[in-house]
Structures are given as C-alpha cells and as structure tokens.
Amino acid sequence: MYWMAEQEVLLDVLEIMKKENKIEQQRGSFDELSNSIIKVAQAYGLYDENYLIQYCPMANDNQGAYWVSVESKVRNPYFGDKMLSCGEVKDTIQKKMIQMPNSSMPAGHNH
Asked: I need a labelling partner for 71 at 20 to 30 A (CA). Which of 7, 78, 92, 95 fits?
C-alpha cells in the first residue's frame, strides 16, 4: 500500500513537471519528486550503489530542499550555475545486496 501511495505522488508530480515550461516551476516540483523518491528508497532500498541525500538550506525560498545524488560533490539542482555547490550531504541510502536463489552454492556447482 505504501508503494501505491508514493507511486501516485511520483506520477502526479511527473505529469505536472511535463506541463511546466519554466525551469523555476520545474524546480519547485522537483522538490516534491525528490522527497517522494527519498521516502521510497529509504523504505525499500536501492540495489546498485550507495546514494547520498543532499540538502540546500536556501532552496525553496529558504525553506530548504533535498535531492538524491551518487556523487559526494554537491551539484545543486535548485540553483543551477548560480549556486551549483550550495548544499551538503545529509545522509546515505545504503546499497542492498540482491539475494539470488541458490546464491550460497559455490560457483561451478551444478546440483
């Protein structure tokens, strides 16, 4: 049920972003999109690598905003070139290992 609710939020925000024609409007929607993605990733995990949750206190009219990144170097999506490095890493979403069936069997065994 949790996924269904967050999926609806994600789809709604993406639909709004498609219709917005100004980058400032899209950045406002990006805040909602990022928050939803962070919630889902924290609830279910991500499987290919660690992800960083980054935060800019000045985004969103100084209310602050989060986003997800694979790099520790801050590349702020809310201000673009104006303040590209404004922000900091706040948390990490740890990589989860995918467990394959019969993964405990050593390689080369055909039982």
From this structure: 7
